[in-house]
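Example for tutorial group B:
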C-alpha cells in the first residue's frame, strides 16, 4: 500500500513502544484508525481511552503484533514487529504480556497450572501445560506470582471454581510470572463489580509499578484512567485526540471523547 512507503523508518529510541503512521480497516468498512503516531517510554503507565468501537482493542493487538496494521510501523522493545520472526519473535513475546477483558483461564486445570502457562512464551512444550509435569523452578515462580496477588492458598483449586475477581487476579499472576517488561491490559476490570474492579486495578497497578513494567491499558472508567495512568491516549474518530500527561487532562476533556 502506498501509505506504507510514506512512513519514515523508525529511529533508535529509549521508547518501549513506538507507533508511526498506524492504520487499520477491516474489509470494506471505514478505517478504524489511520495515521496514528505515539510512543511509550520505559516504565510509563499509559491509559488508552475512547468510546465503544473507536479501536482500542484493535490498536492493542497491532501493538503486540497479534494483527498486522494496513500501514505504519510498530517498534516494540526495539524490534520492528513486522520484521522479526522465529526465535526473535518468541523472545519478544516472552518479554511482553497481555491481560484481557476475559481472563481466558483453562477451566478444568488448576490455578497453578494456569499461572505456569504464562511461562509458555519462554519455554514451550507439554511440560508447561500441567503443574505435575512442570519443572520445579516453573512451579516455584508460579507460586510466587500467586502470592503477589494474594491467592497462593488457591493454587490447587480448579480455575472454574473461582469468582470473577479471583479469576482476574490469576490472569494477572499469569501475565506477571514471566517477568515481562511490557504489559498490555485490555479493560482488566471489565467483568468485575465496582468494589472488585477497584481492588483488582489497585493491585495490578501496585505490582506493575513495583516491578517497573511498562503498561498500556484500556479502561472505560475515567477515574481509573486518570488516577492510574501517567499518561492518557484518547482515541476519537480514528485519530488520537488526547496525548497528554494525566495530570494535565481534566474530566471535561475526557468527557468530550464520548460525545
Ligand atoms: N476481527 C474483526 N473483523 C471485523 N471488524 C472488526 C474486527 N475487530 C474489530 N472490528 C471492528 O473494529 C472497530 C473497533 O473495534 P475495537 O474492538 O477495536 O474497539 P474498542 O474501542 O476496543 O471497543 P470497546 O470499547 O467496545 O471494547 C469496531 O467497529 C469493530 O466492529
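The residue assignment follows.
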Amino acid at each position: 500500500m502506498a501509505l506504507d512507503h510514506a512512513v519514515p523508518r523508525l529511529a533508535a529510541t529509549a521508547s518501549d513502544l513506538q507507533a508511526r503512521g498506524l492504520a487499520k480497516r477491516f474489509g470494506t468498512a471505514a478505517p478504524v484508525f489511520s495515521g496514528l503516531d505515539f510512543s511509550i517510554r520505559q516504565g510509563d503507565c499509559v491509559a488508552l481511552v475512547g468510546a465503544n468501537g473507536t479501536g482500542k482493542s484493535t490498536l492493542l493487538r497491532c501493538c503486540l503484533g497479534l494483527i498486522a496494521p494496513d500501514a505504519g510501523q510498530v517498534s516494540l522493545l526495539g524490534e520492528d514487529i513486522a520484521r522479526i520472526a522465529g526465535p526473535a519473535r518468541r523472545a519478544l513475546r516472552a518479554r511482553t504480556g497481555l491481560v484481557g477483558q476475559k481472563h481466558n483461564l483453562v477451566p478444568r486445570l488448576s490455578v497453578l497450572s494456569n499461572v505456569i502457562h504464562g511461562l509458555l512464551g519462554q519455554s514451550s512444550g507439554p511440560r508447561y501445560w500441567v503443574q505435575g509435569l512442570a519443572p520445579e523452578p516453573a512451579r516455584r515462580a508460579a507460586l510466587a506470582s500467586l502470592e503477589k496477588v494474594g491467592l497462593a492458598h488457591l493454587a490447587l483449586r480448579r480455575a472454574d471454581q473461582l469468582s470473577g475477581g479471583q479469576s482476574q487476579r490469576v490472569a494477572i499472576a499469569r501475565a506477571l510470572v514471566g517477568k515481562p517488561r511490557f504489559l498490555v491490559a485490555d479493560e482488566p476490570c471489565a467483568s468485575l463489580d465496582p468494589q472488585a474492579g477497584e481492588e483488582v486495578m489497585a493491585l495490578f497497578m501496585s505490582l506493575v509499578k513495583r516491578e517497573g513494567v511498562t503498561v498500556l491499558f484500556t479502561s472505560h472508567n475515567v477515574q481509573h484512567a486518570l488516577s492510574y495512568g501517567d499518561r492518557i491516549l484518547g482515541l476519537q474518530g480514528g485519530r488520537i485526540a488526547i496525548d497528554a500527561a494525566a495530570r494535565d487532562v481534566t474530566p471535561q476533556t475526557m468527557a468530550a471523547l464520548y460525545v
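The pocket of adenosine-5'-triphosphate is lined by residues 26, 32, 50, 52-58 (CB under 6 Å). Compare this with the pattern of hydrophobic and polar residues in the output above.
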